[in-house]
Amino acid sequence: MRMDLIIVGVGGQGILLASRVMGRLAMNAGRDVKVSEVHGMSQRGGDVITHVRIAEAVQSPLIEEGKADAMIAFERMEAVRALPYLKKGGLIVVNTQKIAPAPVLAGAAEYPEGLLDALESAGELLALDAQHIAKKLKAPRAVNIILLGAFARRRGGDQAAWLEAVSACVPPRTVEANLSAFLAGWEAAVQ
Amino acid sequence: MEKALLLGDEAIARGAWEAGCRVVSSYPGTPSTEVTEAIAAYKEINAEWAPNEKVSLEVAFGAAMAGARAMACMKHVGLNVAADPLFTAAYTGVRAGLVVVVADDPAMFSSQNEQDSRYYARSAHVPILEPSDSQECKDFTALAFALSEQYDTPVLVRLTTRIAHARSLVTLGERLDRPVPAWEKEPQKYVMMPGNARRRHPIVEQREKKLAEDASEMEINRIEMRDTTLGVVCASVCYPYVREAAPDASVFKLGMTYPLPETALRAFAAKVERLIVIEELEPFMEDSLKAMGLPAAGKAETGLQGELGVRKVRRALFGGETRLIAAPPQVLPRPPALCPGCPHRAVFNILRKQKLNVFGDIGCYTLGATPPLNAMDATLCMGASIGMAFGAEKAQGKAFSRKSVAVIGDSTFLHSGVTALIDAVYNSGTITVLILDNRITGMTGHQENPASGRDIYGSPAPMLDLAALCQACGVKHVRTADPYDQKALDAAVGEEVSREAVSVIVVKWPCILLEKEHPAPYHVEGCKACGVCMRLGCPAIGSGADRTVQINPNTCVGCGLCASVCPFGCMKLLERGEHA
Ligand SMILES: Cc1ncc(C[n+]2csc(CCOP(=O)(O)OP(=O)(O)O)c2C)c(N)n1
Q: Is residue B101 a part of any domain in this protein?
């Protein structure tokens, strides 16, 4: 396993858990891994980007622009914001949710159109409404794990290894709910 | 051996624990906060949040002088506050190891400036270590304690955001238990008055010479000889950037960036054709190499601002393509904002309404400066709001204070605001101070403080009474206010600002993120599109193309501020469960 992955979204969406699962997966596979996180000021509703690097030996904790193999985006405009990191044709797993930024809330701008088209032409796009799936599962906070499930399947991952990594990273009481969320994401990746 | 995927900060904590550290005193500050949060989980270490960095270093120093390995952690600007004890602790030395962790923030992800802490090492004459990943964070912390004792000096460990907040694999070890020796008096070493300090200063100088000599033999200063056409000197997060950008180059990786290993650097420089220093922020190492007469370069290419990365390093080393990929044009900015239901917003609503001059401070409430609130005229550093307001009064006259306030958070007031309040009372000021008491240190991620009633472990602690403290400072007019009683707050601010005396309003409401249960959200009926509620800048309120507003039931916490400003009474509480 060798992968440079960008995970993006809006502060408070549960990105840190997603990157923790990736880290665990890499560790369990005996790989080197570095994860660069955003804490502090930038989390107060701002855009958040996490870099996950898995390889035989990882140097820089940051992925160079234009070199990421894949991206998981928790919000569609954040996916487009992070495109400069993605290599040509890279995998994009995006939650189609729109979260209005301040200029839109203030009525000073419209939430941009055509974002999914921009993603489509930049890479291999898998767009899903993870929020809707989470609602159906009655697990509104599981958007992050659902997206991981979809990503895992698209990457041709070993499901058992992923389930083990998810179990190790979530609170013991929520293991079952999170595993169902992961599998729901896995299913959603077929279409 | 067991491995863990740790943040740099967590690895520092682990290193301190393994090294037998017993006392840690810190003040929070991004990106250093998680060191001490992780320390609190080790039961062998006595951890605390101090009211500020100066106190934290003094407590750690006291412990080290009394024979226990001790550590103080802070962000870069925190070391300015703790600089006073640091400079003289450099003279006294220590009995047990004393380590000061300082975290710089190139690119200012969460900071008000981009200062470079390495200069403190040089001017205080203490060594500074700079780890390049989490494993080194752990190893260098243990080494820092050993060096501290071996050379009888405090030791700085410097992180940057990309080291502090990056996870990488760490091999865990056991704790080394070091008993605390009996107390010993040694006034000539520890009472720093001129006579004693004059005897200590030459010792400081000798120690530094010895360290500089020994540095060339230290394992953490390592030469990787490869192609000799290019030799790069680097440390910290720049090392992995350089290795990735120039895998074939020869590299001098420094673990200790002050004092520098001059002998080894000279030998390295003699072997390479081109000598480049790659470092973020200031040309700290480059200037030193130039002072040694070595033909170093690099800063002209890397610049003084922001952070580096593989791409920038490659460009600095090899030139060539410099175009950065532009973010697609349709993407809108997403600036941070006060949370829905944040009590600070209720205060800024009144300050803006009364068109006051606002001397602000550092904390979540600094976001009161952002649009649409735009309710702040200055922020400088922690605690400065009160001094600035008083200084402006001295410049503009007392009438100026009849339309001005200082605004400061609870943690920030106790950090360094209270001394400025004492100044204003003592020197006949007439300013008005609003202490925004949300009962927590919010900005840095909810650390307890002396006014929150709990210690770092969450155990009950004496709760400092902010109003009583202000009275004890001599403020005659102290009152408390509820931010959500907007009428009363409006009146209170009006009265206190017009009063020709120092006055304090303690505005009390807990940080909304501390509340698990919220009232039901509001919704809008018959909006007249007047736009008044939009001026609150609440992320739960959005306006459409026709200027009528909606409230997002998923993010609204029912604080009711919008209802209290709506001139037409359109904001209605939803019954619980009414929205899906
Ligand atoms: C000298 C210094 N130390 C630490 C910090 C980091 N810091 C920024 S804001 C803040 C605390 C703010 O807490 P409080 O005043 O209670 O306001 P709140 O964020 O809760 O509104 C801290 C510790 C800093 N900027 N400067």
A: yes
- Measured in angstroms, the CA of A82 and the nearest CA of chain B are apart by 7
Residue B327 maps to a domain: no
**Among candidate residues B138, B162, B181, B198, the one with its CA nearest the CA of residue B6:** B138
Residue B324 within any structural domain of the chain: no
A76 touches chain B (CB under 8 A): no
Number of domains in chain B: 4
Q: What is the pLDDT of residue A11?
A: 85
Q: Are B137 and B191 members of one domain?
A: yes
- Do B412 and B274 belong together in one domain? no
Residue among B243, B335, B545 whose CB faces A59 most closely: B243
As a whole number of angstroms, the distance between CA B156 and CA B100 comes to 5
Count of A-B CB contacts under 8 Å: 160
Distances in whole angstroms, Cα of residue B12 to Cα of each of A146, B210, B307: 33, 26, 22
* Number of structural domains found in chain A: 1
A61 vs B334: CB contact, 8 Å cut-off?
A: no
**Residues of B in Cβ contact (< 8 Å) with A59:** 240-241, 243-244
For residue B330, tell me if it sits in a domain.
no
My answer on whether B430 and B561 are in the same domain is: no
Asked if A40 lies within 8 A of B109 by C-beta distance, the reply is: yes
Q: CA dist B138 to A1, B142, B214, Å?
A: 27, 7, 22
Interface of B with A in 142-161 (CB under 8 A): none
Nearest to B110 among A33, A41, A60 (CB): A41
Q: Contact B49/B27 with Cβ under 8 angstroms?
A: yes
Tokens of B548: 């009528």
In angstroms, rounded to a whole number, what is the distance separating the alpha carbons of residues B371 and B535? Answer: 8
Answer yes or no: do A118 and B367 touch at CB < 8 A.
Answer: no
b/e sequence B418-442, b meaning 16+ C-beta within 10 Å? bebbbbbbeeebbbbbbbbbbbbbb
Nearest chain B CA: its distance from A112 CA (Å): 6
Q: Which two tokens stand for residue B63?
A: 């412990």
B18 and B149 housed in the same domain: yes
Same domain flag for B298 and B393 = no
Per-residue confidence of chain A (191 residues) as pLDDT tens digits?
899 999 999 988 889 999 999 999 999 999 999 999 988 765 678 899 999 999 999 999 999 999 999 999 999 999 999 999 999 999 999 999 999 999 899 888 999 999 999 999 999 999 999 999 999 999 988 999 999 999 999 998 899 999 999 999 999 999 999 999 999 999 999 86
- B-proximal residues of A, 99-138, CB under 8 Å: 100-107, 109-115, 118
B234 touches chain A (CB under 8 A): no
User: What is the percentage of chain B residues whose pLDDT exceeds 70?
Assistant: 98
Q: Is A159 in the B-facing interface, judged by CB distances under 8 Å?
A: no
Residue of chain B whose Cα is closest to the Cα of A34: B168
